[in-house]
């Protein structure tokens, strides 16, 4: 499976990415919603792990926009 992790805490993100990769998953990481949008424009993901409080916006708003699309 291919995952997108959207998390601004770099240490936490590194730990999550490492664990998911050990389980055999491909993982892309974005630390902002803008970076996540860029990744989603060029790739598709089976699962998105989304932080709620990010430096450039609220993860819930991001989720609503993509659910409607």
Short characterization:
By secondary structure, the chain is of the alpha/beta class. It has three helices and five strands.
Tag the structure with descriptive keywords.
69 residues; alpha/beta; three-stranded parallel β-sheet; two-stranded antiparallel ribbon; 3 helices; 5 strands
Describe this structure in words.
This protein is an alpha/beta fold and 69 residues long. Helices cover 48% and strands 26% of the residues. It has three helices and five strands; from the N terminus they run βαβαβββα. The chain has a three-stranded parallel β-sheet with strand order 2-1-3. Strands 4-5 form a two-stranded antiparallel sheet. The chain is globular. It starts with a strand and ends with a helix. The model has no long low-confidence stretch (mean pLDDT 96).
Please specify the SSE layout and strand pairing:
Layout: E1 2-6, H1 10-22, E2 26-30, H2 33-42, E3 47-50, E4 53-54, E5 57-58, H3 59-68
Parallel strand pairs: 1-2, 1-3
Antiparallel strand pairs: 4-5
Mean pLDDT reading = 96
Strand neighbour order, sheet with most strands: 2-1-3
| Rg over C-alpha atoms, rounded to the nearest angstrom | 11 Å
- The fraction of residues assigned to DSSP E strands is 25-35%
- Secondary structure: helix percent: 40-55%
Oligomer: single chain
Unreliable runs:
none
Total helical elements:
3
Largest sheet: 3 strands, parallel
Q: What gross morphology would you assign?
A: globular
Structural class: alpha/beta
Order of helices and strands: EHEHEEEH
E-strand count: 5
Distance between the termini: 21 Å
């Amino acid at each position: 499976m291919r995952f997108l992790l959207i998390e601004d805490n770099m240490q936490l993100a590194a730990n999550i990415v490492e664990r998911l990769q050990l389980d055999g998953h491909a993982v892309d990481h974005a630390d902002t919603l803008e970076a996540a949008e860029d990744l989603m424009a060029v790739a598709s993901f089976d699962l998105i792990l989304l932080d709620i409080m990010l430096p450039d916006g609220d993860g819930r708003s991001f989720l609503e926009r993509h659910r409607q699309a």
